[in-house]
From TrEMBL:
<dbReference type="GO" id="GO:0030170">
    <property type="term" value="F:pyridoxal phosphate binding"/>
</dbReference>
<keyword id="KW-0032">Aminotransferase</keyword>
<dbReference type="InterPro" id="IPR050596">
    <property type="entry name" value="AspAT/PAT-like"/>
</dbReference>
<dbReference type="InterPro" id="IPR015421">
    <property type="entry name" value="PyrdxlP-dep_Trfase_major"/>
</dbReference>
<dbReference type="InterPro" id="IPR015424">
    <property type="entry name" value="PyrdxlP-dep_Trfase"/>
</dbReference>
<comment type="similarity">
    <text>Belongs to the class-I pyridoxal-phosphate-dependent aminotransferase family.</text>
</comment>
<dbReference type="GO" id="GO:0006520">
    <property type="term" value="P:amino acid metabolic process"/>
</dbReference>
<dbReference type="GO" id="GO:0004069">
    <property type="term" value="F:L-aspartate:2-oxoglutarate aminotransferase activity"/>
</dbReference>
<dbReference type="InterPro" id="IPR004839">
    <property type="entry name" value="Aminotransferase_I/II_large"/>
</dbReference>
<dbReference type="Pfam" id="PF00155">
    <property type="entry name" value="Aminotran_1_2"/>
</dbReference>
<protein>
    <recommendedName>
        <fullName>aspartate transaminase</fullName>
        <ecNumber>2.6.1.1</ecNumber>
    </recommendedName>
</protein>
<keyword id="KW-0808">Transferase</keyword>
<keyword id="KW-0663">Pyridoxal phosphate</keyword>
<feature type="domain" description="Aminotransferase class I/classII large">
    <location>
        <begin position="36"/>
        <end position="379"/>
    </location>
</feature>
Length: 396
C-alpha cells in the first residue's frame, strides 16, 4: 500500500540533519563515553516543587479529558505573562494550550496556510522547520542570512519572496545561532508583513534566555497583533521539555479556529500537566532566571576560553542555550568537523549544515553539560581545530 506524499515527503527526501547526533547515541549505547553538546536538553531536571504539584493534582483526579483550548487557569496565567512582558493586551481568548512548542508550530501553519501556499522561513533554522511546513501542506521557501551579519535577517533578502508567500516564520532568540533579532530587523520584517499581507509566526520559546540586549516580540509592533501568531513553551523557560506544554498566542478568531483543529487532532493537554505548568509560571521571573542561569554562566565561560585564539569564530551569543562556532579556518565543513571531533575525542556537536546552507562551515554547541565538562570539551575542540588548521596550512 502506498503512503501519502504528505507523510513520505516530510524530510524532503533527504537527511533531516540528525545523523551525527544519531551516531553519538549509537556509540553511547555501545558503552562509549560521549560528551553530548547536541540537543537543547537542560542538564537539570524539572524542579521538584513542579513535579510535586503535578503529582498532587494527578492524585486529586485531574487525569480525565481537559478543556481543549486549555484550562482557564493556565490560559489566564499565560495571557497575563504575555501582557506583562510585551505590553499587548492579552486574554485567555488569545491563548491556545498545545502539546509543546512543536505542535504549536504545526498548528499555526495549518491555521494560515492552505495546501500549496508558500511559507517562508529563515536559514539557519531549527531542524524541524521545513518538515513542519511540508507536513502542514505548505511549500517551504528558505531565506538565507549571512555570517558577516551575525545571521540577522535582511529585509531586502526576504522581500523578493514575500509577494507570493502566505506566511513568514522567525525565531528569536534564535536556535541555532544564539542571535537575538534587533528592533530594526523586526520593524523591517513587520513593515514587509503589513505591506504584503503576510502572517508572521514568531517562535519565542527562548524568550527567557537573553544574555545581551532585549527580546522584542513582533506582536507588540504597530499593526502586528492581528497578523502574528506567537509560539511559546514551558520546555526551555522551566526545564519541562518532557511535559509537552506550549501555546499559541494570536487573534481571538484565529484561536477559535485553532481550538477546532485541536479538537480534531491532539484533543488538548493533560490537566495535571497544565496544573503543574500554571504552578511553575506562578513562581515568577526569579524561577525562570534560575533555570536560565547555567547557560548565562557557561556563555561567559566560553567567551573567556575563546578569547585567546583566532581560529574558531564565536558568533555573538546573545541568547538561547547554544553557541554557533565558525570552523571555516580548518578548511572543513561543519559536518566533517563534527564527525572528526566525535571520532577523535568522543565529543558530539551538531553540524551547522543541519540547520541550513547559511551555516555551512559552522557547528552548534549546546551549553547543556556541567561547567567543568563544558570547559574541557571546548578546550579540546579548540585544540583539535588548531591541529586541523595547521595541517591545512602545511598542505598548501
Amino acid at each position: 500500500m502506498q503512503l501519502s506524499e504528505r507523510i513520505t515527503g516530510i524530510t524532503g527526501g533527504g537527511s533531516d540533519g540528525w545523523d551525527v547526533f544519531l551516531k553519538a547515541r549509537r556509540m553511547i549505547a555501545q558503552g562509549v563515553a560521549v560528551t553530548e553538546l547536541t540537543i537543547g536538553e537542560h542538564d537539570i531536571r524539572t524542579a521538584a516543587p513542579v513535579l510535586q504539584e503535578m503529582h498532587r493534582t494527578a492524585l486529586g483526579g485531574h487525569t480525565g479529558y481537559a478543556a481543549v483550548p486549555g484550562t482557564d487557569a493556565l490560559r489566564d496565567r499565560v495571557a497575563a505573562r504575555v501582557a506583562a512582558r510585551t505590553g499587548v493586551a492579552t486574554t485567555r481568548d488569545n491563548v491556545l494550550i498545545t502539546p509543546g512548542g512543536q505542535a504549536a508550530l504545526f498548528a499555526a501553519h495549518m491555521a494560515v496556510c492552505d495546501p500549496g501556499d508558500i511559507a517562508l522561513y529563515i536559514d539557519p533554522y531549527y531542524a524541524t522547520y521545513p518538515g513542519t511546513l511540508r507536513g502542514a501542506g505548505a511549500i517551504p521557501q528558505v531565506i538565507g542570512t549571512h555570517a558577516e551579519d551575525a545571521f540577522q535577517p535582511r529585509v531586502e533578502d526576504i522581500a523578493p519572496f514575500a509577494a507570493k508567500a502566505r506566511s513568514l516564520l522567525i525565531n528569536t532568540p534564535n536556535n541555532p545561532t544564539g542571535v537575538v533579532y534587533s528592533r530594526a530587523t523586526l520593524e523591517g520584517i513587520a513593515s514587509l508583513c503589513i505591506a504584503e499581507d503576510m502572517w508572521l509566526i514568531s517562535d519565542e520559546v527562548y524568550d527567557t534566555q537573553v544574555w545581551e540586549g532585549a527580546h522584542l516580540s513582533p506582536r507588540a509592533l504597530p499593526g502586528m497583533a492581528e497578523r502574528t501568531l506567537v509560539v511559546g513553551s514551558m520546555s526551555k523557560s522551566h526545564a519541562m521539555t518532557g511535559s509537552r506544554c506550549g501555546w499559541i498566542i494570536g487573534p481571538q478568531d484565529a484561536i477559535a479556529h485553532l481550538t477546532n483543529l485541536a479538537t480534531h487532532t491532539t484533543y488538548g493537554v493533560p490537566g495535571f500537566i497544565q496544573d503543574a505548568s500554571c504552578f511553575a509560571l506562578a513562581q515568577g521571573d526569579a524561577f525562570e532566571e534560575e533555570v536560565a542561569a547555567p547557560f548565562r554562566r557557561r556563555r561567559a565561560l566560553a567567551q573567556d576560553i575563546f578569547a585567546g585564539q583566532n581560529i574558531v569564530g564565536l558568533v555573538p551569543a546573545q541568547g538561547a542555550m547554544y553557541l554557533m562556532l565558525d570552523m571555516r579556518a580548518t578548511g572543513m565543513t561543519g559536518e566533517a568537523f563534527a564527525y572528526d571531533l566525535l571520532e577523535s575525542h568522543h565529543i558530539a556537536v551538531m553540524p551547522g549544515e543541519s540547520f541550513g546552507a547559511s551555516a555551512t562551515g559552522h557547528i552548534r554547541v549546546a551549553m547543556t553539560v556541567a561547567d567543568d565538562v563544558f570547559a574541557h570539551a571546548l578546550r579540546t575542540l579548540l585544540d583539535h581545530a588548531a591541529l586541523r588548521s595547521a595541517e591545512r596550512a602545511a598542505a598548501q
